[in-house]
Amino acid sequence: MSEAAMERRLHYLNVSYGVKSWLFTTDHKRIAWLYLLSITFFFFIGGLAATLLRLELLTPQGDLVQAETYNKLFTMHGVMMVFFFLIPSIPAVLGNFLIPMMIGARDLAFPRLNLLSWYLYMSGGLLTIGAAVAGGVDTGWTFYTPYSSIYSNSHVVLTVCGIFINGFSSILTGLNFIVTVHKMRAPGMTWFRLPLFVWSHYATSIIFILGTPVVAIALALVALERIFRLGIFDPALGGDPILFQHLFWFYSHPAVYIMILPGMGVVSEVIACFSRKRIFGYSFVAFASLGIAVLGFLVWGHHMFVSGQSIYAGMIFSLLSMLVAIPSAIKVFNWTATLYKGSISLDAPMLYALGFIGLFTIGGLTGIFLATLAIDIHVHDTYFIVAHFHYIMVGGAVMAYLGGIHFWWPKMTGRLYPEGWARLAAVTIFLGFNLTFFPQFVLGYLGMPRRYHAYPPEFQVLNVMSTAGASILALGYLLPLIYLIWSLRYGRVAGMNPWRATGLEWQTPSPPPTDNFEKTPIVTREPYDYARAEPQSEYAPGEVEHV
Amino acid sequence: MNAEKMIRNYVMVFVALLVLTATTTAVAFVDLGAPWNTTLALGIAVVKASLVVLFFMHALYSRPLTWVFLGAGILCLIILFTFTLADYATRDNVGAGPLAGAPAAGASARTSGTTP
Amino acid sequence: MSKSHPRLLHHFDDPEQQLEASQSGMWLFLVTEIMFFGGMFIGYTVYREAYFEVFAHASNHLSVWLGGINTAVLICSSLSMAMAVHSAHQGQRRKIVFYLLLTMVLGTAFLGIKFTEYYHKYGENLIPGLDFAFKEGNAGQAAIFYSFYFGMTGLHALHMIIGLGLLSFLAVQAARGRFSPLYSTPVEMTGLYWHFVDIVWIFLFPLLYLVGRH
Amino acid sequence: MNLGFPLFPDQASTMAPRVDALYFVLIGVSVFFALLISIAIVVFAFRYRRRADNERPPEITGDLRLEILWTVIPLGFTLIMFAWGAILYFDTYSPPPNALEIHVVAKQWMWKAQHPEGRSEIDELHVPLGRPIKLLLTSQDVIHDFFVPAFRIKTDVVPGRYMTVWFEATKAGAFRLFCAEYCGTLHSGMLGRIVVMQPRDYQNWLGGQAGGMTLAAAGARLFQSLGCVACHTEKDSARGPSLAGLFGKQVRLQDGKTNTADENYLRESIINPQAKIVAGYQPIMPTFKGLVGEEGILQIIAYLKSLDRQEGGPARK
């Protein structure tokens, strides 16, 4: 398919032009693009804050920034990355774009709500950035009371409003996904023919729906307490600060599964495609996603082992936290088993996926350290925890996000990215990441606490290694930004199915028409049946082989 | 289900709700020992709520999917309640009754106008 | 049901799918509301357990009469809402408008009673943060009770106001004959929302008003 | 080999070797699983690399035996870790009865420690070697966290209540104390030192502060000056309940519940007397909130505990 042919054929990008066609679109694919651009913007703001943090930690004394500014920087890094990048990234960009196509639908169930959720996301984000510009907030992304509600004199209420509004954006996305998967599957698309990408987003949406409102209330109570001097969490008036931690972590632990489950969905798709083999134990991987979402709600107390929570409650939460690690282990073993006797080609998405499995395994195993009560006493609120969740978030979620962007880039833009540069970027990110965060495990067990802008001199060498790694990682992240934008103009034209994958989204031209399919496909075969299907890489537009 | 039957159901549920409201208010003035008053009040509230859900919101004759969603919500609420209260019930000194450890700091001058 | 239904949206195949999607969407939204109010209920329950005596004294300041009447008003509004949905299914235009207006009147009555209660509390200096004065026990803990009282009933009243907004929009639509047996989804959805707000009050009334009344 | 910077913290308390043993077992098992997965990935990626474009890999859909295997083995391993961790956790937060009790008050960005013999110090804590030390911690403002890496102990210090943790130092010397819960601007400046001394040196150090009143004596003085003695006269006609020998006993309250008279109960009864009223007494005690600081309350509690140890204490009915 030549470039001119692609230009002449009508698809969702050239069907209309102009700002109004973007700002008032209800097409799930265009909304995915709106999210992609805004998420990249928030990611680089969070990344800027991270760079300043790492530079400050080069020296034991706090000499680059004052303590006050450092506290605002790590809070900004936390809030931006957690609420405005990690939680929405894969669901809002790849989920929005792909779920309707993967199940053979023309759009999500509630397109207008989908657009509203982007506007809520943007208004929440801009409000939070406004708070940062106005002076920032210095409570940490966890907003623990009574510091956040009484003693902090920074813009807590403004930031809390930003996050509160942003919460409704993820609630609406979750609601949209669940109803779409239940009600709008193409004929023949039974639950066990759904791609695992859809399963993981269904599990994520359960957490969106059940968890987000509780943190909205917790943060609203903090804002009320700050404005009207109430005593809800103020111990001097009889309030209990530990109650805030319960309400906060009730959502915020399932939120870390919101961040990782979509990544697992991307990895399942990429592993199957680039080893040309069915996923090993499809139903186990699918139910593992649901298992993680459900068990994720039972374990929040492991954030509070040393916080004054009762010893017995701590033991219950520790036991349940061990159980929640099992579904993740099942997934890792099934992915590895999928590689067995496959026909593996190490394209960039595959490099990201294999990197994900390695780093997520280390992240998951160190999670068991933290679920073990005695070890958590020593490592709670130290750099061991920082390393653990960065292995899951950056090693897992961000690697999977980049893998997914590369894997579906031809479908979203009709263009192929430069393979050589992409593989270089993936390797750079993998190496930079390990150099940044592995020393932090050692620092953590040595006892260096989190959120310290000055530290004892004996920790300096490990911190310098970590900062060196951070600079490589930052370089690694800039590469995709450059060559992906470059590929929009100069990338080779991708056909309908450049990777010869089996999903429904690869059975329609790329970039796809506004209604995704000429006529709704009828699904007759199991997912990922690479062995039998010989999917055509080239279709004459308009003629869809019954999958 | 024809129209008359539906309306009859509505009115019956309506009357039941009013009666239950009256009873829960009346019973509140009778001392039934510490835990029973609250349990009874909550029990009546649950009955009233299920009446509204089943008849007014047509949950009774709607698809099983509605029950799955409602069940998930209620189960998640129960998880929130049981684990949080489990912490408060067993906190600090064991055997000293519920919420022994909960802080009981007295009034403070910060609440403007409070007379200690 | 013919395929070319007047209100069928392009991404749905048939009206049943569209209706079921709206219903599932609404029920899911109500589940998020359950968790939204749930966060406040657990906070209130924890403190009520911890400071039962002070909460009982503080709760005795609330008038059971006004609370009881409000509950009855809300139950009547639930009935009239159910009738509105019922007549929307039947497509009887005048009845829909009548019942919608009746529900709005009852809703406004509820808010009226609510704000008179708030005004009484203002008179008795029982609003935390606004020269709060509480004699029969620990003022700090009583401030927590009243924070939750105003927080929960305030959030509930906000949901009532949103509900009244929806109802007025529907009343206008109904008057223009927009709803028919083929298409009455908005009325049904608003009905579900309204009944949910009533259920929240069904739990709020005993938990806030009937604390230790003996 | 000495790299010039440490890679592993000191082991300076009885708990440290036990926690480190669990840590190393966990590391061993984790390294095994991590290597198993990464080697498998590398080997499979190389061995089954795509040689021809139209290769047709066999259609393997799954294997129940393997699934059960890699569910049961991780479950077994994690449950063992849970049990072992829970035992150590329970020990860390259950101080032995004969422990030397030291009161610690955390305030925005400093630590204040008070020894029962009356000596108090700031951002430093001198303790004898080889003796269990029980810390009773509270905070005056936000949540802080008492963290001594060398002892492997950590506990949040929550305002409005007492937290307890204990340790027994096994190495003399000075060890770093951190605040591990974010508490504001100078959170990273809230450092301290735990100085472990031979018991003899500790006694000399204690005696060093001339004329220092013991905690209990300071408490007795406060008990008089605040007028507590007016009601708590230990006589039957007294308006306040008898306090001699009260610490640690069960107290029957007006609403029928019983409550252990521990530090939290005593502190609560001073700050908010209305909360728990002893059976048979009127709720007439005013609150002393604002009239006496955290240190004062600790002194009064120490005094009430000393009443308990006096054999010849006034006769109690």
How would you characterize the overall build of this protein?
The complex is a heterotetramer of chains A (547), B (116), C (214) and D (317). Chain A has 547 residues and is mainly α. Chain A has one domain (3-12, 26-507): Cytochrome c oxidase-like, subunit I domain (Cytochrome C Oxidase, Chain A), CATH 1.20.210. In chain A, 66% of the residues lie in helices and 0% in strands. Chain A has helices at residues 3-8, 19-23, 28-56, 67-86, 89-102, 111-134, 147-151, 156-183, 196-228, 241-274, 282-295, 311-339, 348-371, 373-379, 383-413, 419-446, 460-490. In chain A, helix 3 packs antiparallel against helix 17 (460-490), helix 10 runs antiparallel to helix 13 (348-371) and helix 13 (348-371) runs antiparallel to helix 15 (383-413). Chain A is globular, with a radius of gyration of 23 Å. Chain B is an all-alpha fold. Chain B has 2 domains: 1-58; 63-90. Chain B has 3 helices and no strands. Chain B has helices spanning 3-28, 34-56, 64-89. The radius of gyration of chain B is 21 Å and the shape is flat. Chain C has a single domain (15-209), classed as Cytochrome c oxidase, subunit III, four-helix bundle (Four Helix Bundle (Hemerythrin (Met), subunit A), Up-down Bundle). The termini of chain C are far apart. Chain C is mostly helical and 214 residues long. In chain C, helix 3 (64-90) runs antiparallel to helix 4. Helix content of chain C is 77%, strand content 0%. The longest helix of chain C has 37 residues, at 139-175. Chain C has helices at 15-50, 52-60, 64-90, 93-123, 139-175, 185-209. Chain D has 3 domains: 11-41 and 65-92; 100-208, Immunoglobulin-like (Sandwich); 215-309, Cytochrome Bc1 Complex, Chain D, domain 2 (Orthogonal Bundle). In chain D, helix 1 packs antiparallel against helix 2 (64-92). Chain D is elongated. The model of chain D is unreliable at 310-317 (pLDDT under 50). Chains A and D meet through helix 4, helix 7, helix 11, helix 12 and helix 13 of A and helix 1, helix 2, strand 7 and strand 9 of D.
